[in-house]
């Protein structure tokens, strides 16, 4: 299947009992190889039919083109309406990352949506090799992170750029770690988030990069953060302070502007909503939703290729922000803040930004990532504190799994 030149069969079967089907697929293929959940909807992949690897600055565009070729060779036998085949993807944040950017086509995908379920089955095409092992780089300690933020603020005040998002990593030991258990905890606690696991990266992202369904594209921008409080009065005050914060509103406006500049040239009927405070269990975020019409033949990965990296996870201007990240962050982000999601045979799909995420580095070890947007008004200690809030979903999931054993 190297050249995607051979026709192959894909079957779509109606399912009456999703739980029983999942048990059968687990018996046949082992633990899930890919997971995507949002609310009561879920896509769960088992086994590997193809693992396609991409690298470099055109990695997402190359993946979109490779996917079109693969879909063109699929001969679909369907008992129910549905697009097939289905692939899950996880892409590196940076052009020069050592991490694999992948499209993973499972042998079977259990699709649960709107109270109905079906399974998409694909034969082995090109299983590929194992994923690249993460480097054993040292973590970015808090003191060094604060120094990097201070250096970034100096550059911004000097006029080199307007915003840069600086991330740090945190190595977490979790004896007996089970990915499925961690995902269950994330899904229960962060129901409004997009729960994902693809090729060793997993998390609970609150931010969609691009969703395409039937010619309609949607996106959600998050930038600007405040802590939650168990005290209702303090929590309301935190929310109102976020909505009224000039620093956070400026940071958010830069992210929305980058979305407008990108989508405005390739979509029609683009509508941008008003910023609002999105409440998650651990933080408040400033959020803005956008919708647009896309032309026939434009798929979800095409939009992802244009949108990534957004100002929400890189900064502005893009080139200057990426240069600052490369200089100030002493580690490879790998798939953190990169696109993660799924795509089907029509080109429809859902893609989020891999936030509140971690990479599995071994049987008992994960490396979590979190970042904060730095602007001229930023305080280094406050930005460090913000990254701590954003580590909480992964830390909570690992702690809950350890307690349940």
From TrEMBL:
Enzyme Commission number, as recorded: 5.4.4.2
Keywords: Isomerase
UniProt catalytic activity: chorismate = isochorismate
Keyword Isomerase on entry: yes
Keyword Disulfide bond: no
Pfam families on file: Chorismate_bind
Regions annotated as coiled coil: none
Domain Chorismate-utilising enzyme C-terminal, first and last residues per copy: 143-389
GO MF annotations in UniProt: isochorismate synthase activity
Family membership noted in the UniProt record: Belongs to the isochorismate synthase family.
NCBIfam families: isochor_syn (TIGR00543)
Protein name: isochorismate synthase
Taxonomic lineage of the native organism: Bacteria, Bacillati, Actinomycetota, Actinomycetes, Micrococcales
